[in-house]
Write a structure and sequence with these properties.
By secondary structure, this protein is of the alpha/beta class. It has 7 helices and 10 strands. It has a single domain, classed as 3-Layer(aba) Sandwich (Rossmann fold), CATH 3.40.50. The strands form 2 sheets. It has a 6-stranded mixed β-sheet with strand order 6-7-8-3-9-10, with helices on both faces. The chain has a 4-stranded antiparallel β-sheet with strand order 2-1-4-5, covered by helices on one side. β7, α6 and β8 form a beta-alpha-beta unit. It is globular and about 50 Å long.
């Protein structure tokens, strides 16, 4: 059974009195352990698809099955549980809490899970070690470079041991050299068996994935 199976999904929004079809009959299968880039210009539908894959939104029609479970039939609290347990998010602007140290930012999702301090500590340190930031664990985000902040964000995701990592333009706020370093981390994580789904409009970044899915006007063009 595929990890992600999306069948004939449609999603519409109302904008200025006009109906916008963000996703138009989209079908996509992603297997466990794949590294997939979803590529397209702004407004093409790729971010809407990411929100649906990440259980941040649900489709109007069609079906989405994640690891054998029908997502469309779940209640909000069940979707929140899926996000917390199965899906890790990495965003362009890092989304770190400025008053928390690197360690505390990585630790926070584990606190939400109800884990004890003793349970959390080895997971946090292991995640920071995976991105080479243990020595800077006490630093605030403002004391870290952009690349280091993104590595903290990746560590925060890793600490929860998600089945899927969704990365939305993860190199968009970084210079090209730092972007390459971040993509090397994703490649290494994928080599370890993690499923990576990368949203990007950058052709050079997309080509570092093992499969590219292209979007335009809410529809898949190729790479399925």
């Amino acid at each position: 059974m595929s990890l992600i199976q999306i069948d004939h999904v449609c999603k519409q929004y109302m904008m200025g009195g006009e109906t916008i079809r963000a996703l138009d009959d989209v079908s996509l299968v992603i297997e466990q352990g794949e590294f997939v880039a979803i590529m397209g210009p702004s407004g093409s539908g790729k971010s809407t698809l990411m929100n649906i894959i990440g259980c941040l939104d649900v489709s109007d029609t069609g079906s989405y099955v994640l690891d054998g479970k029908a997502i469309n039939q779940m209640k909000d609290w069940q979707l929140a549980e899926i996000r917390n347990r199965k899906i890790g998010f990495v965003f362009q602007n890092f989304n770190l809490l400025p008053r928390l140290s690197a360690y505390e930012n990585v630790e926070l999702p584990l606190i939400y899970r109800g884990m004890t301090r003793k349970e959390r500590e080895p997971l946090v340190l292991k995640a920071l070690e995976a991105v080479d930031l243990v020595e800077r664990r006490k630093h605030l985000p403002s004391e870290l470079s952009g690349g280091q902040q993104q590595r903290v964000a990746i560590a925060r995701t890793l600490a929860g041991d998600p089945a899927i990592i969704l990365a939305d333009e993860p190199t968009g706020a970084l210079d090209s050299k730092t972007g390459i370093e971040i993509m090397d981390i994703f490649a290494r994580l994928n080599d370890q068996g993690r499923t990576i789904i990368l949203i990007t409009h950058d052709h050079a970044i997309a080509q570092q994935a093992k499969r590219v899915v292209r979007f335009r006007d809410g529809r898949l063009l190729e790479g399925v």
